[in-house]
Fold this sequence. Notes:
This protein is of the alpha+beta class. The protein has helices at 23-28, 34-44, 74-82, 101-111, 120-133, and strands spanning 4-13, 52-60, 65-69, 97-100, 136-139. The protein folds into 2 domains: 4-69, CATH 3.30.1550.10; 74-139, Arc Repressor Mutant, subunit A, CATH 1.10.10.250. It contains 5 helices and 5 strands, in the order E-H-H-E-E-H-E-H-H-E.
Amino acid sequence: MKKVAAIxxxxxxxxxxxxxxxxxxxxxxxGANIMEFVKAFNAASASMGDAIVPVEITIYxxxxxTFITKTPPASYLIRKAAGIEKGSGKAGREKSGKLTxxxxxxxxxxxxxxxxxxxxxxxxxxxAGSARSMGVEVTGVPNA
Length: 144
């Protein structure tokens, strides 16, 4: 078994990673092959459209690496579903968009592998909470 030298977490645009910052400095300081990672990441995330993709890169002491791509952040998925550019700066007072409970469920299904929830409904409640904290109004939420 190889010895782990570092674990690097980044959020990169799908299929658009370049050796420029933040990728170059983050991997370069641990001696990993930057271009090899960029090519592998871009190939692995090509089907994800224009999403922001969190990636966890494990760099080993022999300078080899493995990486795991995660699902896009909840805030990105909420903004996309609500059709807004960004959340409200004053979340409790100003609404920046609307989301239905069905949209929360759809986002929860997509995010479920990366969430700490027992089922889809619990995950959807977490998504609804994130949406509310962004100033997005959530309609049709069942009482829990």
